[in-house]
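Input sequence (451 aa), recorded before submission:
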Amino acid sequence: MIRSKGILLAFTLAALSLQAQADMAKHAEHTSAAGIDLVTYHTEVKDVIDIVGYLPAGEAMAGTGNAALPTLMGMMLERGTRTQDQFAIARQLEEVGAEITFNVGMQSLQFDAKCLAKDLPLVMRLLAAQLRDPAFLPGEFAKVKEQFTGMLQNSTRSTEARAREALGRALYPAGHPNRRATIEEMLAAVKSATLKDLQAFHVKYYGPAHMTIALVGDVSMSASAAEVAKEFAGWSGGEDFLRTESVAAPAAPTDPILVPIPAKTSVSVLLGQRTLLRYRDPDALALRVGTAIAGRGFTGRLTTNVRDKQGLTYDIGAGLADDNLVDGMWFMDASFAPALLERGIAAGRGTLQAWWQDGVTEKELAACKQGLIGGYYVGLSTNAGVGHAIVNALQRGYELTWLDEYPRAVQALTREQVNAAISRHLTPATMVLVEAGTFLPAAAPASAPTP
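Predicted structure, token format:
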């Protein structure tokens, strides 16, 4: 209780201090440079700039082709350019204390950078070179394939990874942008991927057409736009995100999906369903707030009932995922010792059923609003946090005014709206159940079904 009160106090104090920065959207400048959507946001953090950006080149862009190409391409960005090897780039960044990182998600290649304001020209030049002109050296490609293979092989032994894989493939049908390849399919794809395949993927998906960059900190729009325009001049291409209409859901399995993994001390459990909602759809925010009451942190109902009262697990919660651009999923995730598995699942299901049937209380809603709004302001207390809030808002289809509207939208939600969203979009009794780990003998399946 002391810890939860401390967290709530920290959120409250952060909210009070940051609420003074009203009208955040007015502090942001929005333009286009070299065909790139560019946003700058000046803060009082002197001499430091954070850069956050994305372009549509994530896993889903593989389509029916080689599933490994998007991730392999993202990994190759850090392996040098046509004019400088990776060590020369690393030395230049280290000399000025700057950094550039890349991450491949479901639909986006995201990049993050940090530097002193005086070093923005250097960092923008290196970032542009990495995105535009990767080296495509055969030796480095072989190393990247080996590294990715190792990561995937480790995932085959991860109860969490195998549970996520099974649930996603049970919920998302073929053709849905959120449907991932299996780990085994990905291993085969890495093995068969060629440098020619990778170069073709880069030509098709890397470009400024649907790229966004946010610079936050000690920045000016004129200087930032000049650097972006100079370093990305003449670049073309790029594809839009996949924004397909919702694909019909497959028939949900009525029996649990069991994924045996030997010699594990716990079983990862996921219980979930598709919501058929995107992040900014009507009801989506109300459902997100209601879900936070069910499974957010130490104060959620699942933690209170299943962990604190019954002592069945240390790790349980609920959330929504995969819904920035297309309809996503709702899930409960937990980890149980094999001997406590059946009791733990029953306790989780019972908690969810009561939450779904009876709804949330006014007291729970008030506390949740305070925590979510405080957490939002805490996230905006750093340059990187502001940058991620900006690009997330734009990717989800909002105007930058959403930075100011979000806390007000949360505060305005009523108990009736939250409970209606829960009952309208979720059905706990028919959710897909996945269990991955080492089972007691009576629970072990004859084979490992893969959806």
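Checked by second reader. Confidence is low (pLDDT under 50) at residues 1-20, 446-451.
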